[in-house]
Design goal:
This protein is an alpha+beta fold. The chain contains 29 helices and eleven strands.
Length: 606
């Protein structure tokens, strides 16, 4: 061994905290870079990883008895094969370790030594988890700095959430805030410059591409939004921004647990709603207040821990305000297609969240169309005893649309049990799961039972959900009423629903052309266009389908021509009856080779 190699071998490794501190000190303006810092990998190539069940057992064994020093834990982890890749498992196991009361002080001391002097990811992660249980304010600066390592952000932020919400949020935004537009706010937060925080908060775009529910929650916590609102009670720009952040936190397409987890969120609601009368009655402010009302009526906001009567009082206050003439006229001067679409949504939706009685029904369906400016989803929200089911028990995506749950009669209770998918993750079920329930009729009752939550990749079984029983007469009436109500729908959506209803009633309109019904709704990119999709398999009508495993999908766009929706839908159904739709629709999916084989041009990818 050369002298240089010997010196390297004898030099103790740098503590991860010290390494993070050095990186931070050399960062421009002392602010961490976007996505934080990256730790070098230490697992040797070709080394067989320890299976998860064995790793879980190894972590428990490493803490029995409680290590007396960081080096002891490092050696125990090393002998048992616990590696960097097990960091999430290490954190979850240590967070749940039984600690006798007499060992709390020793465990806290160990946690602090691991966090401040630990040199490996597993040992530092274990220290972070211990301080998440036992730490105090003196540990916050160390956890905040370690959280700037991308591999340690999650564990550090979870620990900080228990100790100091502001520091947890600032650390998360510094390491996880991916948009360039967030950086000025992050710099102000990291520097603790209150005036700059307010200015950058007002300058920040808050539309969905820039701010999702998690970013909105962390901005509210990092800026200490309730305190900021109290310091500037007459600042209507700040008030409007706070309302917008609440709307983003409650967005059902994102993660509703962000609203439920947000620190002091009830104070933000109180400030925004109680001072809403100070806001100018603009179209944007009216849309924000209406979105808040919809959430307080049937969305995730219902699930917050409200003092008795407080949520109803806030709803009543919003209802009075939005009914006032100056607010009712907010969309009268709307110009441009987007503003007119938003004004029409306010007109259609404006009184819906205020119509229900104060006493919750046992079973209720509320169809809610979100703000079109945010491309909010259309949901058939199911409420049991006044509580929305999907965000309460699933929370990975919005409730399904009425097109699926109501127009096709899936929630109707028949003599045979029927499994119904109530919601699917905003990505896909294969990625993040879905929520199912079995609906059946039993004498004079309708039973919802055998709940099923698919959670791909989860190692822990989902908690079982109880069965619900409803009076069959009341249930049937609620379903029939929800199916009949269409006041939430806009023209193109109504055209699509009527076409779909016609095809359900007369499937031969498509099957005569060797086609089957696909997705039918209004366009996502152009909500003023009805979209009809269908799949084509040669020989389908004759009962001798050719290569049914390779169908072609076609799409037919029907722009709104200004005539009544009923007239447009009837014309579309007549055309389907008289002309082969493959001659005027375009291929939109399937297999390129199959399309060319059948003589249909494949869509241009541009």
């Amino acid at each position: 061994m050369s002298a240089q190699d010997e010196r390297v071998a004898l030099t103790p490794p740098t503590a991860l905290y010290d390494r993070a501190r050095q990186l931070l000190d050399t960062s421009p303006e002392g602010v961490p870079p976007r996505r934080g810092y990256v730790l070098p990998r230490t697992t040797a190539r070709g080394e067989d990883p320890l299976p998860w069940d064995e790793a879980r057992r190894a972590v428990r064994e490493a803490f029995s008895p409680l290590p007396d020093a960081p080096a002891t834990l490092r050696r125990r982890f090393g002998r048992r094969g616990v590696q960097d890749r097990h960091r999430h498992l290490v954190g979850s196991v240590v967070a749940e370790l039984p600690l006798p009361a007499g060992q709390a002080a020793a465990a806290r001391t160990l946690g602090r030594r691991l966090v401040r002097t630990g040199t490996t990811v597993p040992t530092v992660t274990a220290g972070i988890a211990l301080l998440g249980r036992l730490g105090t304010a003196e540990d916050v600066p160390y956890l905040s700095v370690l959280g700037l390592f991308w591999d340690l952000t999650g564990p550090a932020v979870r620990a900080l959430d228990a100790l100091d919400r502001r520091s947890a949020a600032v650390t998360w935004l510094a390491a996880c805030g991916r948009r360039d537009e967030l950086r000025p706010l992050v710099r102000a937060l990291w520097a603790g410059d209150g005036q700059a925080v307010r200015s950058e908060l007002l300058a920040l775009p808050t539309s969905p591409p820039f701010v999702d529910s998690t970013v909105a929650r962390r901005i509210a916590e990092a800026s200490e939004l309730p305190v900021l609102l109290d310091r500037h009670p007459a600042d209507t720009d700040l008030l409007a921004r706070a309302g917008r952040l609440l709307v983003r936190m409650g967005c059902s397409r994102d993660d509703p647990t962000d609203l439920l987890a947000c620190h002091d969120v009830l104070r933000v609601y109180d400030s925004v709603v109680s001072r809403a009368g100070l806001l100018p009655p603009t179209l944007d402010n009216a849309a924000v207040l209406l979105s808040l009302a919809l959430d307080l009526s049937s969305g995730t906001g219902v699930l917050l821990d409200w003092p008795p009567g407080r949520r109803a009082a806030l709803l009543e206050s919003l209802g009075r305000l939005l009914a006032a003439p100056r607010w009712a006229a907010a969309g009268a001067t709307a110009s441009g297609a987007d503003q007119r679409r938003r004004a029409d949504w306010i007109r259609r939706t404006g009184r819906r969240p205020f119509r229900r009685p104060a006493v919750p029904d046992r079973f209720r369906i509320e169809v809610v169309a979100g703000d079109p400016a945010d491309r909010g989803p259309v949901e058939a929200r199911v409420l049991v005893d006044g509580r929305p089911v999907v965000p309460a028990v699933f929370g990975r995506g919005p409730a399904h649309s009425p097109d699926l749950l109501l127009d096709e009669g899936r929630l109707r209770a028949g003599p045979e049990p029927r499994e119904v998918q109530l919601a699917e993750a905003s990505c896909t079920e294969g990625c993040c799961g879905a929520l199912y329930v079995t609906v059946r009729r039993e004498a004079d009752q309708v039973v919802w039972e055998n709940w099923r939550r698919t959670l791909p990749g989860s190692r822990d079984p989902a908690a079982e959900l109880p069965a619900h029983r409803f009076d069959a007469t009341a249930y049937d009436a609620e379903i029939a009423g929800a199916e009949a109500v269409c006041s939430w729908s806009w023209r193109a959506r109504t055209v699509a629903r009527l076409i779909k209803a016609g095809l359900i009633e007369e499937p031969d309109l498509l099957s005569r052309w060797d086609a089957g019904r696909g997705w039918i709704s209004s366009g996502f990119d152009d909500p003023e266009t009805a979209v009809v999709t269908f799949f084509y398999v040669p020989g389908l009508a004759s009962g001798r389908p050719q290569r049914p495993d390779s169908p072609l999908q076609f799409r037919w766009d029907i722009p709104d021509d200004g005539t009544p929706p009923e007239t447009q839908a009837a014309a579309a159904l007549r055309r389907l009856a008289e002309e082969d739709p493959k001659t005027y629709a375009r291929v939109s999916g399937g297999n390129r080779e199959r399309a060319e084989e059948l003589g249909y041009p494949w869509p241009d990818s541009t």
